[in-house]
Design a protein that fits this description.
It is elongated, with a radius of gyration of 17 Å. It is α+β, with helices and mostly antiparallel strands. The chain has 2 helices and 4 strands, in the order αββββα. A hairpin with a 5-residue loop joins β2 and β3. It has a 4-stranded antiparallel beta sheet with strand order 1-2-3-4, with helices on one face. The chain has one domain. Zinc ion binds next to loops.
Length: about 80
């Protein structure tokens, strides 16, 4: 039986009281972003419904997929323009 130690994080306590300080960590598209809290590292994402949700592995996967499509579309638009 392993002895688990729960790491004490002052940042997490601070976020609980004062709220998170989110900075954009990734631009999925021009309107869809991933955010990361500068203090505790909590990650959030814009969703298709326009709400902010906890960045779960599922959301990350979806965002990667959307990001790829978005990039491809952008490249195609550039090609057509030239
Ligand atoms: Zn935080």
């Amino acid at each position: 039986m392993e002895d688990y130690q729960i790491p004490f994080s002052f940042a997490q306590i601070r976020c609980k009281f004062f709220g998170h300080l989110f900075k954009i960590s990734k631009n999925v598209t021009d309107h869809l972003h991933e955010y990361k809290c500068e203090h505790c590292g909590l990650e959030m994402t814009d969703t298709a419904n326009g709400i902010l949700a906890r960045l779960t592995p599922k959301y990350r996967e979806t965002n990667d997929y959307i990001s790829q499509i978005h990039k491809r579309r952008k490249r195609r638009l550039l090609k057509n323009a030239s």
